[in-house]
Design a protein that fits this description.
Layout lengths: L4 H5 L1 H13 L8 H13 L3 E4 L6 E6 L2 E11 L26 H17 L4 E9 L7 H7 L2 H4 L4 E8 L7 E2 L3 E4 L1 E10 L3 E2 L9 H12 L1 H6 L6 E10 L5 E2 L2 E10 L2 H22 L2 E10 L2 E3 L1 H15 L3 E2 L11 H5 L4 E7 L18 H15 L3
Parallel strand pairs: 3-4, 3-5, 5-16, 6-15
Antiparallel strand pairs: 1-2, 2-4, 6-16, 7-14, 8-12, 8-13, 9-11, 10-12
Length: about 375
């Protein structure tokens, strides 16, 4: 069974919907137009909708005609704070905001599945359609959970996907068990003492101190962890000073660390805090560290992975493989999968520019494939 025929018939409608979302991207928790458009489309197909879950999130429910299990499908809606440089005729109309990660495509694929299921309700169970805000490091999944997502809309299984321009068209990959890293962000502020650049002896130079701190932080993983355990610490920002001849009062370091075991995440955080305390003591200054867990480790339920691959073989054949490699990238569907067993997979397309790049272009020909996969998961797993 290839792409579902009815979905193929309205593929052009999906392209138009996706390109409309693309022209009007919105940042996390600001997806007001997007969520309104999603709600309007769902309502036009006879889908019951509840809005305001986790801020701008919403949930649609489609009841099958026969009793069965509740299958959750999740898509993210937010865009990135970056400029688009594609020169597409439907390029972003919001300066500094761009669907550079393809969430417009994820939302559209879930809408495609919704349109099909709403018109073909001879399936067992129910489809719970979760349109999540603020995936890009802002905690959208946790916001929906705080609003009682699965208490209000119980699910027996949960599935989601991410587009991948790094794979061949319709190539589906997934990894059973731990698949994507947990992530924390940090802001470290070094409160030194400023002085004239010609008189450094009068300063407590936060730039020199920060440079030493960065070097030590780069050794946290290499000198504290078993080298067979993947983890990384990256300082990605160093802000200090504004004049050629002034040693500044403060410096700020920002960055992230990633890990696949929560104990490793705790160890890295503790080492960062101890390094900050040690440098503060040695240089007789104050250093503050704000460290926040942003993403949990994403773990795919092995049984659900097997179920997904069986369904995917109907749509994409042997292109569906449970052979994805570990990735240090993070995804906040991890929070949802800690509550409901499920699987999160990658779906390849013909794009040649990486995600989070100003030239990224989503391949609309993958929309009916993704919509068919999601729809068949409901039809097959609802009756399991």
């Amino acid at each position: 069974m290839p792409v579902i025929e009815q979905i193929a018939q309205f593929a052009q409608d999906l392209t138009a919907i996706r390109q409309d979302f693309h022209q009007h991207p919105e940042l996390g928790f600001e997806e007001h137009r997007t969520s309104q458009r999603v709600a309007d489309l769902l309502a036009s197909w006879g889908v019951s909708v509840e809005r305001g879950i986790g801020g701008t999130g919403l949930v649609g429910v489609i009841e099958g005609t026969r009793p069965g299990r509740s299958i959750g499908l999740r898509a993210d809606m937010d865009a990135l704070p970056m400029d688009e440089l594609t020169n597409l005729p439907y390029a972003s109309k919001n300066p500094g905001v761009f669907h550079g990660c393809g969430h417009d495509g994820h939302t559209t694929m879930l809408l495609g599945a919704a349109r099909y299921l709403a018109g073909n309700r001879d399936f067992a169970g129910r489809a719970v359609l979760i349109f999540q805000p603020a995936e890009e490091g802002l905690g959208g999944a946790r916001a929906m959970l705080r609003d009682g997502l699965f208490d209000r809309f119980p699910c027996d299984e949960l599935y989601g996907m991410h587009n991948s321009p790094y794979q061949g068209h319709s190539q589906l990959t997934i990894r059973p068990g731990k698949a994507q890293a947990g992530a924390s962000f940090f802001d470290i502020t070094i409160h030194g003492r400023g002085s004239h650049g010609a008189m450094p002896q009068a300063s407590r130079d936060p730039i020199t101190i920060g440079s030493g701190l960065i070097k030590e932080m780069q050794e946290i993983v290499s000198r504290n962890m078993d080298p067979t355990r993947p983890a990384v610490v990256s300082v990605t920002q160093f802000h200090a000073g504004s004049a050629y001849n002034v040693i500044p009062e403060t410096a700020v370091l920002r960055g992230t660390f990633r890990y696949f075991d929560e104990a490793d995440g705790v160890m890295i955080e503790n080492r960062i805090r101890k390094l900050c305390a040690g440098f503060a003591l040695a240089h007789e200054i104050e250093i503050t560290a704000d460290i926040r867990n942003i993403f949990d480790v994403l773990s795919n339920d092995p049984e659900r992975v097997g179920n997904l691959i069986e369904v995917a073989h109907e749509i994409v054949g042997d292109k569906a493989q449970p052979n994805a490699e570990l990735t240090m990238g993070s995804e906040d569907m991890a929070d949802l999968l800690r509550v409901v067993p499920g699987a999160f997979f990658n779906l390849g397309h013909s794009g040649t520019v990486p995600l989070h790049n100003s030239g990224f272009i989503f391949d609309d020909t993958i929309l009916p494939v993704g919509a068919s996969l999601l729809a068949r998961l409901v039809e097959v797993r609802g009756a399991a």
